[in-house]
Specification:
Number of strands: 5
Strand order of the largest sheet: 2-1-3-5-4
Strand content: 5-15%
Distance between the termini: 49 Å
Radius of gyration: 24 Å
Length: 261
């Protein structure tokens, strides 16, 4: 159970806030003698431990769907809604002093965001990096879209595992050249399996800078329809990729964006 929770940020402060909200709800209703929200919430937690937050349920659900993507929603939704409900209820319709305290807390949260929110320490502006992404991800996404131009089709790009989700969060028009399942399969089985074999050639290049059979890589690029490779500059892939007509198009601080001709 502990491992399942930690895999989906269960060791963060979200669960602590959730537990605190449940306790406060329980105490409030016990004191007033009205309502049973706290009891229902506590019962829901106990049932979730039996049916959701355990390895057995995790494995069963893994047989039915993409467990690495959808399982988190089973705990995220109740945790966030219960916490938000209690925080809202704590300040709504209260005395002026409590409302001012809530406004102050909100302002402090915005202030600590620096360039993360609309309000930062310097001025009021539109956030440039609202998700707090790595600057490389932002630079790479913008460079790909700028080089791609205004064509109707969406560009397909292959990134290393670190950049893949960050770039797509910032610029969803960029399609993945390497599927998530291919990455997970390769991480577990290595490069010596036939499943996802085309994508494994690309993974070897972008994730580790491996310079094997360049013709095999080119065939993989053609079959998967990849338009761009994004590879760490330190791997020094220019001459290797030039052999298969893959040339530098732009560069961020740590990555080189290659255009597949």
């Amino acid at each position: 159970m502990t491992g399942v929770l930690k895999q989906y940020n269960g060791d963060s402060l979200y669960l602590a806030a959730f537990a605190g909200s449940l306790v406060l709800l329980w105490l409030k209703e016990r004191k007033t003698g009205q309502g049973n929200t706290g009891k229902k919430a506590a019962a829901a937690v106990l049932l979730s431990v039996v049916f959701i937050f355990n390895e057995f349920a995790y494995r069963i659900m893994g047989k039915l769907t993409d467990i690495t993507t959808y399982y988190r929603f089973f705990w995220m939704l109740p945790v966030l809604f219960v916490t938000a409900y209690h925080l809202t209820e704590a300040f709504t319709g209260r005395k002026k002093r409590q409302i001012c305290a809530a406004a102050l807390i909100f302002a402090v949260c915005l202030g600590f965001g620096a360039n993360f929110f609309f309000l930062n320490r310097a001025n009021i502006n539109r956030p440039q990096n609202i998700y707090g992404l790595d600057p490389d991800a932002v630079a790479v996404a913008e460079a790909v879209m700028a080089d791609w131009g205004s064509t109707k089709e969406q560009p397909v790009a292959a990134f290393d595992m670190y950049l893949e989700y960050q770039v797509r969060t910032y610029e969803p028009r960029i399609l993945w050249g390497i599927s998530r399942k291919a990455y997970l399969y390769q991480a577990k089985h290595g490069y010596n399996h036939k499943k996802y074999v085309r994508q494994q050639h690309i993974i070897a290049a972008v994730n580790e800078g491996i310079q094997n059979d360049s013709r095999a890589l080119r065939r993989s690029l053609d079959k998967t329809g990849v338009d761009y490779l994004v590879i760490r500059t330190e791997f020094d892939m220019d001459s290797y990729l030039a052999q298969i007509l893959v040339v530098p198009a732009a560069q961020s601080e740590h990555y080189t964006i290659y255009r597949v001709r």
